[in-house]
Amino acid sequence: MTREIMLGKTLVGDGHPAFIIAEIGINHNGDLAVAKQMIDAAVHAGVDAVKFQKRTPDVATPPEQQNQMRETPWGYITYLDYRRKVEFGDAEYHEINRYCGEVGIPWMVSVWDEPSVDFMEKYDTPAYKIPSASLTDHNLLRHVRRTGKPVIISTGMSSMQQIREGVDAVGSENLVILHCTSTYPCEPRELNLRMITTLRSEFPNNPIGYSGHEVGLVPSAVAVALGASMIERHITLDRAMWGSDQAASVEPGGFGRLVKYIRVSEASLGDGVKKVYESEMTSLQKLRRFAN
Predict the structure, then answer these.
(1) Is 85 within the bounds of a domain?
(2) Given CB 3.0 to 4.6 Å as the disulfide criterion, which of 57, 104, 172, 207 pairs with 229?
(3) Rounded CA gap, 181 and 248, in Å?
């Protein structure tokens, strides 16, 4: 079985360019105009898709957290009210769908609960993402699988056994598995990029990728060198913006460099077969004194 799947019109897996996702998430802070600026920045950077997060706040917010108070741009409000403020609904997603079609970029969402899956079914997105927080929600995994769309799962905050159980619940067909550490931002010593090779060994028929929350760009390019065929990084207009994900996000200029680093890394890997390149012949003739 080939380690590849089709996402929309793009093959993702071994032997194909890494599929790069700009995760807008909730960095828009509930502002559609900001979300569209982030879409524009992602298109300019050359990514393959943008992604948002879809929650049903009353379902996805743990009951014990709903009435906790917090400071927000909308004042001192409950966590549940905050979640409602940043959540896009029909009007916003209708415009996102239209705008992404206009600028020519696929879009998708992470779904945090079953009603969000049902909400999203009206849109022709190429896949559903299951966030790390929901990997152990097997009912959600099975509900997403019933849509028939490809599924991407993140594995932050999870043991290997929980990852195996999640894969069993969702099914291994048309599945991408992303290595992830759910710390925002994440220190380099906890990125554990060698987990990419571990997951490649554990799940030999599935494309393996990387969802990164580090500060900087180099680890994401290293992830590609280790075999990641999908890279997901958060995008923001300004890392100083309000919001829990902003500090672990990449600003527009950095995202453009990230895409270039990944593409250069891919081009540099080669096939592992030693050869004398035509470009070396002049140096060979000038510099080598003895031929064997």
Answers:
(1) yes
(2) 207
(3) 12
Is 141 within 8 Å of 166 (Cβ atoms)?
yes
Among residues 285, 270, 153, the alpha carbon closest in space to that of 206 is found at 153
CATH number at residue 276: 3.20.20.70
pTM of this structure: 0.96
In a domain, 292, yes or no: no
Overall domain count for the chain: 1
Q: Which amino acid is at 48?
A: D
Q: Residues 77-107: pLDDT tens digits?
A: 999 999 999 999 999 999 999 999 999 999 9
The DSSP bridge pattern shows strands 69-72 and 75-78 to be antiparallel
Domain that holds residue 90: 4-287
Tens-digit pLDDT profile for residues 27-53 = 999 999 999 999 999 999 999 999 999
- Tell whether 241 is covered by a domain: yes
Rounded Cα distance between 230 and 286, Å, is: 43
